[in-house]
Amino acid sequence: MRxxxxxxxxxxxxxxxxxxxxxxxxRRGRPENVLPLWVADMDFKTSExxxxxxxxxxxxxxxxxxxxxxxxxGAVAGWMNRRxxxxxxxxxxxxxxxxxxxxxxxxxxxxxxxxxxxxxxxVYYPFTExxxxxxRKVVSSDLVLGEDGKYHIDFADFERKAAKEKVTLFxxxxxxxxxxxxxxxxxxxxxxxxxxxxxxxVLSDEIHEDFVWGNRKHTVFADLRQEFADISVTCTSPxxxxxxxxxxxxxxxxxxAELRRQFKKQIAAAGYSQLxxxxxxxxxxxxxxxxxxxxxxxxxxxxxxRFMKAYLEKELPQxxxxxxxxxxxxxxxxxxxxxxxxxxxxxxxxxANLWLDSGAIFGKAGEGFERFNVACPRVTLEKALEQLKRxxx
Length: 393
Ligand SMILES: Cc1ncc(COP(=O)(O)O)c(C=O)c1O
What we know:
- This protein is α/β, with parallel strands linked by helices.
- It has helices at residues 20-23, 48-60, 70-84, 99-110, 126-133, 155-162, 185-197, 226-230, 239-242, 257-269, 277-289, 291-315, 341-351, 378-392; strands at residues 35-36, 93-96, 116-119, 137-140, 144-145, 151-152, 167-173, 201-205, 232-236, 250-253, 320-322, 329-333, 354-355, 357-358, 369-373.
- 46% of the residues are buried.
């Protein structure tokens, strides 16, 4: 058995750190002592190697404009190659302060006001927001929950929607938040062929690429075919993998020079240039020295998923858990309780004293579901499930 080097079990107080998950409950209409399993960050301390790198950088004391060089690119390229077998080139890299920022830049770069942007609901809700807030139209080819308990793409519907006049961009979530699918090569090939046929650019949001369970493999969409690399923008980031969301660093890879030029033009138009120094330092250290921490964290989180599945099957069989193939987000079907959306919200927040992401915010297709973030100490997860059990019973 592997020797455990890191402590993921002991809860760490996050209150009082400006923590979005814990410190803003009342302002966001929840009880002060609500137990939060919503926003997708982890309740774990990151790797000491990353903390050391940040500490050393902080001690230098000068925080002027900072740019990344060869060593930064080497770290990113090393991770992509080691973990995903993907060879990237330095000139493909465009850094942004977060993936959602990159989504917004892509919407502005590749579509015009009034155009449709294709998504697959239920999906991470900022997809919808960046489309609508930029005056574009959401065109959703909703995922379909199969008898096998997994979500699937209705390819006939997907093709009809991709073919619509004025759909020029597809936002792919891979692995998929919230339904936890890790798309197979076969599915990605079909997506790619359809998008090529109708001249639809594919933004592949692969922020959850490092969270894949069992013997599955994450496939980088752009790496499947040269023709897919030519029509795609791939969003990657150490934020989920190493719990660095507050440092706002993401690496966007755009092999096609013209797509890259259009994307960079939007970043310039937004008045943005260099990233923050701490984010760059953390990203480089994470990708160079974070493997041990990452692997142990993955074991811990996969055990949390197993724990939750066993708990629900035994204690709350009315709820149906979609077992995630990827991501640390667990999507649970509450429709068996027969509650309206308002009643469900009251059950979760007022009776169970939990703060989850209600499925409805991911699109109409998510109504009746709740999303749990299980990247937390097991005692926190167990407490949440106990509170839920008491509320339902
Ligand atoms: C699919 C997906 N994309 C993007 C993000 C957020 O990325 P960022 O914080 O880098 O904007 C999340 C966070 O949950 C996510 O699940």
